[in-house]
């Protein structure tokens, strides 16, 4: 399978500091990947490497199944990006900004300028200079700018940063439509986790330059659904005890000696007592699940590495 982006053991150093440490990720086409990490985790660094704005110290990177400097240069024409700040020229209108970008990219089709302005909801800004735009308008112009070459892969670093709630909703709608209607794969970083949760189909959690976890929305929902997590080697016996002792079938046996029980959340004492009574050697018993935010904190707090 050709991935839109595939990295293997990608590392990047700044002086003696390792900002990215052996990062291996695979991005499939048509998905929206939420890149989550604290300040300084390495999100922008990873995006800059993917976009060709900086070069790795070690490791490999391929785009659309191609690697090698010459090939990557060609494949990067299929990428649009807005990394750090939207690259906007303040003294120009939205359309003039897009014209500059279009010409720089060597794209002859002038109609794309109006099409992109329409797409991001800026077609009525006329001669207004970009420096007088609101932050939300600037962000949308930045996205239009990234979209001008009809990219198949969009890299957006903090596109909703500083936006008011309505602006956030607008960007969310735009990105969801771009993925659904134009089948654009999106890699997006954001500190706004509740918002990201509404956009992303998949998540990549990065911490201190390392990828701690990649998971799909379904896997996240599974992890976030409130449950009693019971760790026990004898999962078959445990399941039988839950069914017979508690009369429940609302549980799931996980592959790693964990059973998730989705009911009896308010009767943990009763559950524990029944497990004990049946002689089960329980090595972990906790109430888990919740928001993306809490999940993220539990992953980086636990320092998991799978
Ligand atoms: N040009 C640079 N020179 C030196 N250090 C750098 C440079 N760029 C990034 N770093 C360092 O690399 C680490 C990762 O930075 P990066 O910008 O990728 O983090 P981030 O996850 O995008 O953070 P934020 O959420 O704050 O944008 C940080 O410690 C940062 O200080």
Automatic annotation (TrEMBL):
From which domain of life does this come? Bacteria
Query: Mind telling me what this protein is named?
Result: ABC transporter, ATP-binding protein
Q: The ABC transporter domain covers which part of the protein?
A: 5-233
GO molecular function terms listed in the Swiss-Prot or TrEMBL record: ATP binding; ATP hydrolysis activity
PROSITE patterns, per the entry? ABC_TRANSPORTER_1, ABC_TRANSPORTER_2
Q: Which family does it belong to?
A: Belongs to the ABC transporter superfamily.
- Database matches in PANTHER family: ABC TRANSPORTER, ATP-BINDING PROTEIN
By its UniProt entry, which InterPro entries does this protein fall under?
A: AAA+_ATPase, ABC_transporter-like_ATP-bd, ABC_transporter-like_CS, P-loop_NTPase
A Pfam family of the record is ABC_tran
- Alphabetically list the UniProt keywords: ATP-binding, Nucleotide-binding, Transport
């Amino acid at each position: 399978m050709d991935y839109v982006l595939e990295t293997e053991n990608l590392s990047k150093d700044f002086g003696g500091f390792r900002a990215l440490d052996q990062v291996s990720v695979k991005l499939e086409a048509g998905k929206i990947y939420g890149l989550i990490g604290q300040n300084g985790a390495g999100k922008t660094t990873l995006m800059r490497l993917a976009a060709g704005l900086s070069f790795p110290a070690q490791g490999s990177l391929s785009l659309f199944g191609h690697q090698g400097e010459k090939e990557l240069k060609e494949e990067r024409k299929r990428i649009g990006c807005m990394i750090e700040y939207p690259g906007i020229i303040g003294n120009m209108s939205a359309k003039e900004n897009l014209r500059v970008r279009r010409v720089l990219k060597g794209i002859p089709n002038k109609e794309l300028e109006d099409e992109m302005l329409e797409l991001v909801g800026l077609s009525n800004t006329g001669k207004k200079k970009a420096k007088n735009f609101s932050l939300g308008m600037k962000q949308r112009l930045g996205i239009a700018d990234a979209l001008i070459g009809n990219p198949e892969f969009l890299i957006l670093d903090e596109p909703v940063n500083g936006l008011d709630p309505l602006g956030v909703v607008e960007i969310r709608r735009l990105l969801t439509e771009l993925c659904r209607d134009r089948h654009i794969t999106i890699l997006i970083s954001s500190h706004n986790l509740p918002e990201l949760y509404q956009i992303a189909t998949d998540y990549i959690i990065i911490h201190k330059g390392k990828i701690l976890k990649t998971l799909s929305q379904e896997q996240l929902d599974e992890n976030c659904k409130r449950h009693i997590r019971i760790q026990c080697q004898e999962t078959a016996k445990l399941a039988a005890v839950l069914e017979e002792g508690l009369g429940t079938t609302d549980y799931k046996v996980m592959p790693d000696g964990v059973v998730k029980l989705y009911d009896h959340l308010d009767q943990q004492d009763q559950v524990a007592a029944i497990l004990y009574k049946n002689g089960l050697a329980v090595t972990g018993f906790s109430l888990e699940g919740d928001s993306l935010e809490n999940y993220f904190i539990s992953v980086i707090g636990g320092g998991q590495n799978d």
